[in-house]
């Protein structure tokens, strides 16, 4: 029997381009079983100006947070 591998979301708590708490809530809606890690991700250049999240170790960035959530859903085919 194979266990399903959990998705992992990583959110930076230092970058100003992301609303941490709103993004965390949206990601929990997408996959409430995922591991969500919060901390510096050393992605400061893009993170200063754009919202981003790492999804299963792949960086996803967008012009705004709504677009970011849409991209995450597309990536996970939700």
Features:
78 residues, alpha+beta, four-stranded mixed sheet, 4 strands
What would you note in describing this structure?
With 78 residues, the chain is of the alpha+beta class. It has one domain (8-76). It is 37% helix and 21% strand. The chain contains three helices and four strands. It has helices at residues 20-30, 44-49, 65-76, and strands at 8-11, 35-38, 52-55, 58-61. Strands 2-1-3-4 form a four-stranded mixed beta sheet, with helices on one face. Helix 1 (20-30) runs parallel beside helix 3. The model has no long low-confidence stretch (mean pLDDT 91).
Helix/strand layout:
Layout: E1 8-11, H1 20-30, E2 35-38, H2 44-49, E3 52-55, E4 58-61, H3 65-76
Parallel strand pairs: 1-2
Antiparallel strand pairs: 1-3, 3-4
Helix pairs in contact: 1-3
Separate helix tally: 3
Low-confidence stretches: none
- Distance, first to last CA: 24 Å
| Rg of Cα set | 12 Å
The helix/strand class is alpha+beta
Strand order of the largest sheet: 2-1-3-4
Count of strand segments = 4
Q: What's the helical proportion of residues?
A: 25-40%
Let me know the average pLDDT.
91
How much β-strand is present in the residues?
15-25%
Please outline the major beta sheet: 4 strands, mixed
User: What is the number of independent domains?
Assistant: 1
What does the oligomeric state look like here?
A: single chain
The SSE string, one letter per element, is EHEHEEH
